[in-house]
């Protein structure tokens, strides 16, 4: 369990933040309150308890922040617009649970406009790369998982190496602006390599780097099995 919702019994809405969504043409994405009203208005209109989606989606919403213009490919600046995790849009304060046994690898407050805000990374394998616990899907055994856009209090009491059990509450979805200034949601991502990073890892990449990062960051829905998502 990652969040306190049953995706087989409760109504959820797959949200589209790609250029194919005409709503985004008239929405001021730099105005977080307006962006928030849009997201949660869509959920209310659909009678949904949560919004989901976004893995490998080519999004336009990152144009709201210069944070996503800083990557360079072949010495040329290129925007990052390919989303590498699944977003879960839900009310601030919603609890987040560890989906696998693991330990705290690292954590920090990535406090920039449009960034993750408070972030936790868990490690789910030992030094030999063996899983710390039996996974639901034996073919899908991510080494790391990332939880972004949390409350600042989610970082209280954490330390590197702290053990967590599957199903244990580890955090809460944060409000804006402390969550990186986004409508409240959880960014959940799994990685098989952290590339030497701590407390942070790209959640969005450029089109040129898409194949490389998708190979590092497999689709979390291989484990979550949310119906209607690829």
UniProtKB/TrEMBL annotation:
It comes from the Bacteria. InterPro entries: Cell_wall_metabolism_enzyme (IPR050570), Dup_hybrid_motif (IPR011055), M23ase_b-sheet_dom (IPR016047). SUPFAM superfamilies: Duplicated hybrid motif. GO terms for molecular function: metalloendopeptidase activity. Residues 82-192 form the M23ase beta-sheet core domain. Transmembrane segments: none annotated. PANTHER family: MUREIN HYDROLASE ACTIVATOR ENVC, PEPTIDASE-RELATED. This is Peptidase M23. The lineage of its organism: Bacteria, Pseudomonadati, Bacteroidota, Cytophagia, Cytophagales.
